[in-house]
Amino acid sequence: MTTHARAAAGITAGQVMTAPVITVTADTPVGHVAETLTSSRISGIPVVDETGVVLGLVSELDLLTRGGRTAKDVMTTAVISVTTDTDIEQVRRILVTSGIRRVPVLSSGRLVGILSRHDLVGRTLEWACGVCGETIRGAHPPLVCPKCGGSEDRFVLQEQPPGP
């Protein structure tokens, strides 16, 4: 089992996803899509219908390479998605092997979250409590150690071994 697989054992997309998700509809003007990406500091946005079904995704690349007036005109419709119970290691493999940057997370066929490469990179960081040695994974150390109650300033970022 790889280091990533051991670290991710039992973690699901639903536990790591970003929610709620910023979305647009198919008739959203391209200018508004671009403004939303820029102001929200995201690189892609799901296009959904009124019930939350994903119709496509619009990325920065789509906006730069495709012409059109609305999200429907420029969106990518071949969308790879996962469900809330998809193992996080499987999500990592999808993102790495497919070359995509994000996957919509679905429940009962409807959008409930999104998982990006950025979300997974943050999970690779491991913090150790300087009081009791408890380790926590995440982009930031916890405010309080769940084991001993040590404060955030007691956590030290741990070196991670290289590799997949």
Describe, in plain words, how this protein is organized in 3D.
This protein has a 3-stranded mixed beta sheet with strand order 3-4-5. By secondary structure, the protein is of the alpha+beta class. Residues 1-8 have low confidence and may be disordered. It is built from 7 helices and 8 strands, in the order αααββααβαββαβββ. Strand 6 and strand 7 form a beta hairpin. The relative contact order is 0.18. The chain has helices spanning 3-8, 13-16, 30-40, 60-65, 71-74, 88-98, 117-123; strands at 44-48, 54-59, 82-83, 102-107, 110-116, 126-129, 135-137, 155-157. 30% of the residues lie in helices and 22% in strands.
Number of strands: 8
CATH class of the largest domain: Alpha Beta
| Rg, Å, rounded | 18 Å
Under CATH, the topology of the largest domain can be stated as CBS-domain
Uncertain stretches of 5 or more adjacent residues: 1-8
CATH superfamily of the largest domain: CBS-domain
Q: Give the DSSP E fraction (strand runs of 2 or more residues).
A: 15-25%
- Most strands sheet: 3 strands, mixed
Alpha-carbon distance between the two ends:
11 Å
| Class by alpha and beta content | alpha+beta
In DSSP terms (H or I, runs of 4 or more residues), the helix count works out at: 7
Blueprint (SSEs and pairs):
Blueprint: H1 3-8, H2 13-16, H3 30-40, E1 44-48, E2 54-59, H4 60-65, H5 71-74, E3 82-83, H6 88-98, E4 102-107, E5 110-116, H7 117-123, E6 126-129, E7 135-137, E8 155-157
Parallel strand pairs: 3-4
Antiparallel strand pairs: 1-2, 4-5, 6-7, 6-8
